[in-house]
Amino acid sequence: MGPPTFGRAVRRVEDPRLVTGAGTYVDDRQPANLVHAAFLRSYLANAVVRRLDVTGARQAPGVLAAWTDADLQELGSMPTEAPEEAAFVPERRPLANGRVHHVGQPVAVVIAESRQQARDAIDRIEMDLEPLPAVADVETATAPKAALVYPEAPGNISFTIRKKRGAVAAAFKKAEVVVRQRLHNQRLIPMAMETRGALATMDGSRLTVEISSQAPHSALADLAEGLRMDPADIRVIVPEVGGGFGSKGGLYSEELVVAEAARRLRRPVKWIEDRTENCSGTWQARGHVQEVELAAMRDGTVLALRSQIRADMGTLAGFGPMVPVGTIDMLTGCYKIPALESTLTGVFTNTTPTSAYRGAGRPEATYLIERMMDLLAVELGRDPAQVRKHNFIGREAFPYRNPAGTTYDSGDYAGALDRLLAMADYPRLRRDQAAARQAGRLHGIGMAAYVDIGGGGPADRSAVHLEMDGSLTVYTGSTPHGQGHETTWAQLAADVFGLPLERVRVRHGDTDHPSYAQGTWGSRSAATSGAAVLNGTRTLKRQVVGLAASALEAAEADLVLEDGRVYVRGVPSRALSLERLAAWALAQDREAELRANEEFDSPDYVFPFGAHLAVVEVDRDTGRVQILRYLAVDDCGVVINPMIVEGQVHGGTTQGIAQALFEEAAFDPDGQLLTGNLTTYLVPAAPDVPRFELDRTVTPTPRNPIGAKGIGESGTLAAPPTIVNAVMDALGPLGIRHLDMPLTPAKVWEAIRAAPG
Questions:
Q1: Quick one: which of 613, 707, 523, 610 has its CA closest to 334?
Q2: Rounded CA separation 597/77 (Å)
Q3: Cis before residue 721, ω within 30 degrees of 0?
Q4: What does the angle CA 45 – CA 49 – CA 50 come to, to the nearest 5 degrees?
Q5: Cα distance between residue 551 and residue 317, in whole Å
Q6: N or C: which end of the chain has fewer CB within 10 A?
Q7: Max Cα separation, the chain?
């Protein structure tokens, strides 16, 4: 039997085809008789559609069809979720119907023989928009007498959720220190390398939609509802996906319209989003204004947290309203704060809808509490590490129910921070900082502790098959877009059967497979889909041993499965290879026992955690922030593949650094997107990212059989407050208390120039 692969840093088996260009993406597919879709989009943020005439487009060369929403009335509206019963959720038609609400909203579609012909024909559509006043941010939208995004939503409010626990007023009255701060968590564009795309084909009465998506099964359900078709008549295939980060988690209007075009025209129809469409049309994220108060005693004990959060919903789409609920549920982070009062308001603006983006509500919560803990430390003149440790939830307190009603599974927050401080040689860092300041340099050290939330329901289903050649095929509903599922799921199955990794194949991204997952998001794959794979493989092993017991006329308890064969313990000559056993099962009409279908329904969420630290230096003359060191200690429970875990930390942390220093989706007061391409929306390049110094602690969860918690989003929680805290520490001697993200050189330089110190 070969060495176990579980827990080893096995190279990703999917990488060779991806790095050599052998992977297949939606736009690589070129079926016969393919035609192309292009969309006319609104150029105003709020307007009445006075005239929309597609006659000219229909007469353009190569055009097969041109439609407005009036031509698509038999289609259902797009799905949208609401966080509470009283929420106002506007109807989302596939194409704008009489009114446009944000720049980039699709208004009409053209189908033509070539992509260029479709785009050219778009210019022949006559559209007359009557502009209306727009609101482009939550403060403008909630001001008295503000223009309304939807007349049915007074004050531009979609929903309000309030949570209160403990004696908040008494805590603030008792407090010796009250820290107040307005925090802005800016809008971001997910900016996946591969833009959205869909290819739809009809074969008889069956529709196949190939889509760049994180959730094929959810897309199938939404397509069936929108097209009013039997789900059994739809197949969704997800090929390679060049990034999603949450933005490809729901069904978009364009994808439904492309599917309908294929159904009507009986020809394959493809649409691929360009980068400008991606910036204005793909769902954006974050966009919080947070008014926060923290009550504490002089010894650093936090008594209560009070906040009012306005979350920018844009024009609202998909499951966007559910995202900020994750913020209010996780506001107190790693800390035993006894009293909480918070109000979350979902606000409509005339901007691109917001939805999930890596972290989905939890980065906003982490940023809030971690900035406030640093501000408290500054107010008290205490070390920020000591203030955090003084308030941490103790290891003995788990499972722990936080004031918002969320129950954490397990944790050792002080252990992670202590490991981090030891790695960094924290006392030496502070001595070096003192020397740097003595020399006149703006040198800062920042840290943040975080607790994330992952896993959860609904149940995921897997299937594991023993093939006739003795290999295993694992079918999973969890569709990867960079997470390495083909490797990690193979590691789980290979270890159960004692097989080499190359004898296990993982199949995903096809709703015709005997598997299911709601979607690949929310750090749920290892904790939920991975657990389903493990359960399925263990069930198959029991069935295979049962088959061998019959074939060898031996007791199951006496059989050993390893090295691709089953043998009688102590009598290795009495054995059957898996190939021969599969052939025997087929001959005995017991082929069904070569397949196992299992699911895993998590009893509750899992809660990864950790602590990050950064050392930065700020250039006085330019405002540029240089990251000198970045260290992280993360705890995602039991680790299947350390290399993949580290890769996820690298990616998430890089995106968190990008939010802290570079990225912001900016709109002018009329709702025009000012950052509509990669020359104006700044993403970090390789030289902008430091070398990461990583370590882990391991605190298993009792909520799945692996003990795994998930790691894909944790870096986006920890990095923004870590970097901002470090920069504010550097600027502290100048009297600068707080700057909102992104901390661009221009913003930092202006603050230095205006600083009282």
A1: 610
A2: 34
A3: no
A4: 140
A5: 57
A6: C
A7: 87
Q: Which amino acid is at 284?
A: Q
Distance between CA atoms of residues 127 and 110, nearest Å: 14
Residue 3: its pLDDT value, please? 66
Q: Which helix (H) or strand (E) holds 552?
A: helix 531-552
Mean pLDDT by 10 residues, the chain (757 residues): 81 94 96 98 98 98 98 96 91 96 98 98 98 98 97 96 97 98 98 97 97 97 98 98 96 98 98 97 98 98 98 94 95 98 98 96 98 98 98 98 97 98 98 98 98 93 98 96 95 96 97 95 94 98 98 96 93 94 97 97 96 98 98 98 97 98 98 97 95 98 97 97 98 97 98 90
Let me know: does 659 contact 716? Beta carbons within 8 Å.
yes
557: phi then psi, degrees, rounded to nearest 5: -65, -20
Instruction: Give the Cα separation of 25 and 9 in Å (integer).
Output: 27
Please give the full DSSP string across 244-268, using - where no structure is assigned: -TTTTSS--HHHHHHHHHHHHH-S-
Are 307 and 291 contacting, i.e. CB atoms less than 8 angstroms apart?
yes
**Are the C-beta atoms of 696 and 635 separated by less than 8 Å?**
yes
Three-class secondary structure of residue 212 per DSSP: coil
The runs of H, that is alpha helices, within 144-207 are 168-174
Strands, E, within 173-297: which ranges? Answer: 177-188, 197-203, 206-211, 234-237, 269-272, 285-296
Six token digits for residue 56: 């000219």
Query: Which residue is it, tokens 């209160």?
Result: 164
Bond from prior residue into 642 cis (ω within 30 degrees of 0): no
Calpha distance 474→491 (Å, rounded): 11
Radius of gyration of the chain (CA): 28
The pLDDT value recorded for residue 456 is 86
Q: How far apart are CA 729 and CA 752, in angstroms?
A: 13
CA distance 515 to 49: 44
Q: HEC states along 72-118?
A: HCCCCCECECCCCCCCCCCCECCCCCCEECCCCCEEEEEEECCHHHH
Q: What is the torsional sign of CA 649, 361, 43, 112?
A: positive
CA nearest to 98, candidates 130, 54, 135, 50: 50
Q: What angle do CA 45, 212, 658 make, to 5 degrees?
A: 65
211/311 Cα distance (integer angstroms): 29
Q: Give the model's pLDDT for residue 409.
A: 98
Q: How far is CA 63 from CA 70, 119, 201, 421, in A?
A: 19, 10, 18, 64
Written as six digits, the tokens of 220 are 């199938």
Residue 311 makes CB contacts below 8 A (sequence gap 6+) with 138, 287, 288, 323, 324, 327, 344, 345, 346, 347, 354
The pair of three-digit structure tokens given for residue 74, joined into one six-digit string: 């038999």
* Rounded CA separation 263/249 (Å): 24
The secondary element (H helix, E strand) that includes residue 657 is: helix 642-661
What pLDDT score does 85 carry? Answer: 86
Q: What is the DSSP string of 558-604?
A: GEEEETTEEEETTEEEEEEEHHHHHHHHHHTT-GGGGEEEEEE--SS
CA 44 distance to own-chain centroid: 29
Burial 503-519 (b: 16+ CB within 10 A, else e): bbbbbbbbbebebbbbb
Q: For residues 703 and 524, is the Cβ–Cβ distance under 8 A?
A: no
Single out the residue of 664, 674, 654, 693 nearest to residue 425, CA to CA: 693
The secondary structure of 695-746 as a DSSP string is: EE-----TTSSS-B---TTHHHHHHHHHHHHHHHHHHGGGT----PSP--HH
CA pair distance 509, 498, nearest whole angstrom: 26
Task: For residue 369, give both structure tokens.
Answer: 């509490």
